[in-house]
């Protein structure tokens, strides 16, 4: 899992070739923290097909706002630098995240 911040987001996500999953989260978001171990598990299963990364939005608010992250948790899929899909808030369940990953893996 690549830890993103404002200094590497563009390089690791927006300029990346292929598929990148970004887990937008914050330390105060309980659903985010509950989902995180599952996302790490999915990385073990699908990490050869998708690059997994996470962004603590408290450390990169402008990046999050620029990516139109208005609520948490957000699991977003980027393909060749373009955001192509995401699950947000209550929709971001273990099941929906895995379905999202399978769709792009």
Automatic annotation (TrEMBL):
The record marks 23 as: Deprotonates C-terminal active site Cys. PROSITE patterns: THIOREDOXIN_2. Gene3D superfamilies: Glutaredoxin (3.40.30.10). One of its GO terms (cellular component) is cytosol. One of its GO terms (molecular function) is protein-disulfide reductase activity. Residues 1-105 form the Thioredoxin domain. Disulfide bonds join 29-32. One of its GO terms (biological process) is cell redox homeostasis. The active site is at residues 29, 32. Keywords: Disulfide bond, Electron transport, Redox-active center, Transport. It comes from the Bacteria. The record marks 30-31 as: Contributes to redox potential value. PANTHER family: GEO12009P1. Belongs to the thioredoxin family. This is Thioredoxin. It comes from Tissierella creatinophila DSM 6911.
């Amino acid at each position: 899992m690549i830890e993103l911040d404002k200094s590497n987001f563009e390089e690791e996500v927006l300029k990346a070739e292929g598929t990148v999953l970004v887990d937008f989260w914050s330390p105060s978001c309980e659903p985010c923290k509950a989902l995180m171990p599952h996302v790490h598990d999915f990385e073990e299963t699908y990490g050869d097909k998708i690059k997994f990364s996470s962004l603590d939005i408290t450390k990169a608010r402008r990046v999050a706002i620029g990516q139109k992250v208005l609520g948490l948790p957000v699991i977003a899929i980027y393909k060749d630098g373009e955001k192509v899909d995401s699950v947000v808030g209550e929709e971001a369940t273990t099941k929906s995240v895995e379905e999202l990953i399978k769709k792009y893996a």
